[in-house]
Write a structure and sequence with these properties.
The protein is mainly alpha-helical. It has two domains: 1-75; 77-140. 85% of the residues lie in helices and 0% in strands. It has four helices and no strands. The longest helix has 40 residues, at 3-42. It is flat, with a radius of gyration of 20 Å.
C-alpha cells in the first residue's frame, strides 16, 4: 500500500472519529437540554437543587460540544473549513439581524405575542443548513 493511500485512509478514519465524537456530544447536549427543560416539571417538582444541577450539567456538556465542534472543524481541509465558516458567518448575521428585528416587532406592538427563542433557533438552523448546501454547490 502506498504512503498516499495510507495517509488518505488515516485522514478519513480521523474525520469519521471526529464526526462521531461531535455527534455524540451533540446528542448528549440535546438530551441534557431536554432533561433540564422537562425534568423540573416531570421528575422533581421544581426542586431547586436538581434543577440547578440539570442546568449546570447542560452547560458543561454544551461547552464540551463546542470544543468537539472546534476539533471537528480544525480537522477539515481548507475548503470544508471555508464552507463551514461562511455558513457560520451567514447564520450569525441572520440570527442577530432577524432576532433583534423579531424582538423589536413586539416592543413596537406590531405582533401581539412574545417572541420565542425557539423560532430564532429554528431560523438559524435552516440558515446554516442552506449555507452549507450553497457552499458545497458553489465549490463542487
Amino acid at each position: 500500500m502506498s504512503k498516499t493511500t495510507t495517509d488518505s485512509t488515516q485522514w478519513a478514519a480521523s474525520c469519521r472519529t471526529r464526526s462521531l465524537r461531535l455527534l455524540g456530544w451533540s446528542a448528549a447536549w440535546v438530551a441534557s437540554m431536554a432533561l433540564a427543560t422537562f425534568g423540573p416539571r416531570l421528575f422533581w417538582d421544581y426542586a431547586t437543587v436538581p434543577t440547578l444541577l440539570g442546568v449546570l450539567i447542560n452547560l458543561a456538556i454544551g461547552f464540551a460540544m463546542i470544543l468537539a465542534n472546534r476539533q471537528y472543524l480544525r480537522g477539515q481541509d481548507e475548503l470544508q473549513q471555508k464552507i463551514f465558516l461562511d455558513a457560520a458567518a451567514l447564520t450569525l448575521g441572520v440570527g442577530l439581524v432577524c432576532g433583534l428585528g423579531y424582538e423589536l416587532l413586539e416592543d413596537i406592538r406590531l405582533i401581539a405575542f412574545e417572541p420565542e427563542i425557539s423560532h430564532l433557533v429554528f431560523l438559524m438552523c435552516l440558515t446554516f443548513l442552506a449555507g452549507i448546501v450553497a457552499g458545497h454547490r458553489k465549490y463542487r
